[in-house]
Amino acid sequence: MNNKIIIQQLTRAEGIEGALPLPSVHLPGLLTFEAAARHLNFARAAAELGVTPTAVSRTIKSVEAQLDIRLFNRTTRSVSLTEAGAFLNAELAPALALIKSSLSRVLTATDQPSGTVRLNSSYVAYRILIEPHLQAFLEKFPLINVEISLDNQLSDIVNAGFDIGIRMGKRVQNDMVAVQLGAVQKRIVVAAPDYFSKRAEPQTLEQLLKHNCIRQRYSVGGRFFEWKFEDRGQMVQVDVQGRFIFDEMRSVLDAAIQGQGIGFVFEDFAEQELASGMLRQVLKRHSALDDAFHLYYPHRKHMPGKLRAFVDFMRSANRTETS
Q: Using one digit for the tens of pLDDT, what is the confidence trace for 7-19?
């Protein structure tokens, strides 16, 4: 005897009064919609989600097709929600926030943050503040990977897909958080011993004008770093001249090591070269205090565990170095 089990969809009269079959929309599609609705910018939503703008656009089109409803009005210049999109976002956002919060608490409770931290930094900040402590961080958090991009530009870390950036100073956009990393940086004058084999070492700030000074710009085509010093309670600026101009401090340091001129660099950045004798400090009575480096990242109500671990660890490590 053959037994059969027959499953039939209930009609309104047979079961759920007024029920309509629900469209098959998956959670990733809803998360993409919520991010796009919050930013009203597919590129920013893509950076937050770690995908491409094309992938966001494709997912939104798929959700609209599944629901058979247009959710966004899109032009080449702007993105806005339709009436249906605004209604869906208002109903959906609180539920998704609750899901994200629950997942965040679960991950935090395990005390094992995981994932990839994507960092954008200048080389100088990386060498002074991150590189000395990176191995210890990786050993403490074995489930976290670190992806590092080094450049000397003020990158838009959100649009570029980074979790966090490091830059000098704390002036950031309103939707960003900035926290100090390490102490205020001290600039000193340095040169290779060989540079003075045929010329006298400067004894006063004015004598710098007679030397080939290696200058640096803030960025490509940007303004020069100013050689400013405190002298007997007054700020003195020396308009140095030289045949080399760089937009990266490591190039300034390399040129100074090669005896090409006198450099003006962060003391912490030149620490190894000074200790080895490759460079020596000139005009020791004169130095200059610059700003401190800052970590900056998007303001979020629930900070990802991987990011919290990185920020807390690096701040603690550099506080120990400078306290």
A: 344 444 344 444 4
